Amino acid sequence: MIYATLILLRHGQSVYNKEDLFTGWTDVELSEQGRQEAKKAAFELKKLKHYPDICYTSWLKRAIHTGQIVLAEMGWEHIDCLKSWKLNERHYGAWQQRNKKDVKQEVGDEAFLQIRRGYYTSPPSLDDNDPRAAKFDQKYKEIPPVILPKSESLEDTRRRVASYYCEVLLPELEKGKTVLVSAHGNSLRALVMEIEKLDAKTIIKVEIPTGVPIIYKYDKTLNIIEKRK
Q1: Residues 44-56: pLDDT tens digits?
Q2: Residues whose CB is less than 8 angstroms from the CB of residue 15 and which lie 6 or more positions away in sequence, other chains included
Q3: What distance in Å separates the CA atoms of residue 66 and residue 183, rounded to the nearest whole number?
């Protein structure tokens, strides 16, 4: 018997996805294709009758707007939508806002793959005074600068996402709720690692497509009884 449901949704295509740029914590908008992907996700959830009790997003507008579009298309905007920077995308450091092909040509195939798809290696960090640093963004002004990343590996991203899962998401599932998380490719990969207890080698092969709901159904002891994607 299904007791609780967790819906993971990567934001629809962003304008940086469209241009093949590293985005990270850069706060960019959805492309038109991304908005359509969010609407398609809403149609799928509505068809499956998966109406969330609560929604969580990052502090980045491509994830926020995806969640908003989904709830609007479902006619389900009355629920709470809570936001946390801990669900932000992996911080890509000095690679942020750069073209992926240019970076690959600069660092070589092996280093590029190790950083982009690996688990332990981070991109080069931002300098302290780089204008792209999160400490210069007003929305992070209440967070101690020492906590804000200047670059992250997937391991770093998993650390903050896992704490949010345990402290915030899991208690809602324990109440038998249907929880929607609208977030990002790497923050959701980190969440999938935590949920499915995947190791560093296995997660390399995991892809999270834009705008496609991943649905976990749990029994009362929070064992996964079904996964749909």
Answers
A1: 999 999 999 999 9
A2: 28, 29, 30, 31
A3: 9
203 contacts 116 by C-beta, under 8 angstroms? no
Range list of H helices, 108-178: 109-117, 154-164, 170-174
Q: Give 33's Cβ-side CA count (13 Å radius).
A: 9
Supply 180's token pair. Answer: 């929607």
The pTM score is 0.97
pLDDT in tens, 174-188: 999 999 999 999 999
Contact present, 38 and 69 (Cβ < 8 Å): yes
The pLDDT tens digits of the residues spanning 76-104 come to 999 999 999 999 999 999 999 999 999 99
Report the alpha-carbon distance of residue 14 to residue 78 in Å, rounded: 26
Beta-bridge partner residues of 82? 56
Bridge partner list, 99: 21
Three-state DSSP at 178 gives: strand
| Catalytic machinery residues | 11, 89
